[in-house]
Write a structure and sequence with these properties.
This protein is mainly α. It is 70% helix and 1% strand.
Length: 308
């Protein structure tokens, strides 16, 4: 797992891509299991709630993107893995809190009862809080990285997770936009922050660990910004077109909550066109990098065609 993808051809077929992502998921899950306290450790309720949510069968998209980006630029997995796991902790904490009755009020996540339904609101809040703080502890204590890189990563992930330019800000804007019309720019800004910021941080973090130059980092930033937008557009489409079994969560909820979404603003056909435009933009950013980027290009294709 230490071979860089830059040594492979510039094209990766879907079977090869899915096999690589499956291997990534295995090592991420194994490392997360090491990093997260066992259910038998006090306070048992909080650790049980964390593990209920974290090991519910998520796609691990953000850590996989970090690993893929870092390896494209020649980084070793052992230097990438803990930061990848930290991003999954941040993502899972956000899902636990988003599902709360005071937020998106959902009772199904990844095909099972949401954390607050299973363990109660107070424990769910604490589980999210614990995951957030453990994420930064994991980065700060990663002895595979230099102190300078750790500090840079803590800043990178914190900025993408918080406010005014991160996930928390995006969630706040999203809640404020419920039950009212939004402009094109406002909708894109919501999704750039709520979904795109952490996705961009995943790719940027992998590149930072690999020690890329500023020109390469700028291209990766443009790629991951377009990828984040593509991910949210396809997510909006799936909320309209997929079943609960496909999604592992309640479909159609965005429409019932009168959320600001691409299908609501543009309709399905135009939304699909915007997905293709975001995909094209992501690939164009990769074309600026003077080395093959087969994995990142294949990831963009998988997101464009995803069905769950």
């Amino acid at each position: 797992m230490t071979k860089a993808f830059s040594e492979t051809s510039s094209v990766m077929d879907e079977r090869e891509m899915r096999s690589q992502l499956a291997r990534y998921r295995e090592i991420v899950d194994a490392r997360l299991n090491d990093l997260i306290p066992q259910e038998s450790n006090a306070p048992e309720s909080v650790h049980s709630a964390i593990r209920w949510s974290l090991f519910a069968g998520g796609k691990r998209f953000r850590p996989l993107l970090l690993l893929a980006t870092g390896q494209e630029f020649g980084a070793r997995v052992d230097g990438l893995l803990d930061t990848a796991c930290a991003l999954e902790m941040i993502h899972t904490y956000s899902l636990i809190h988003d599902d709360l009755p005071s937020m998106d009020d959902d009772d199904l996540r990844r095909g099972r009862p949401t954390c607050h339904v299973r363990f109660g609101e107070a424990t769910a809040i604490l589980a999210g809080d614990a995951l957030q703080t453990l994420a930064f502890q994991t980065i700060a204590e990663d002895e595979n990285l230099s102190p300078e890189v750790r500090v840079r990563l803590v800043s990178e992930v914190a900025r993408a997770s918080g406010t005014p330019d991160g996930m928390v800000a995006g969630q706040a804007h999203d809640l404020a936009a419920e039950s009212r019309e939004v402009s094109d720019d406002e909708l894109e800004r919501i999704h750039q922050l709520k979904t795109g910021a952490l996705i961009a941080s995943a790719s940027r973090s992998g590149a930072i660990i690999a020690g890329v130059n500023e020109t390469e980092l700028a291209s990766i930033t443009r790629y991951s910004a377009a990828l984040g937008l593509l991910f949210q557009i396809t997510d909006d489409l799936l909320d309209v077109t997929a079943t609960a079994e496909d999604l592992g969560k309640t479909p159609g909820k965005d429409a019932r909550s009168r959320k600001a979404t691409y299908p609501a603003l543009y309709g399905l056909d135009s939304t699909r066109e915007r997905a293709h435009a975001a995909y094209t933009e992501a690939c164009a950013a990769l074309d600026e990098i003077e080395r093959p980027m087969p994995t990142l290009r294949a990831i963009a294709g998988l997101i464009l065609e995803r069905r769950a």
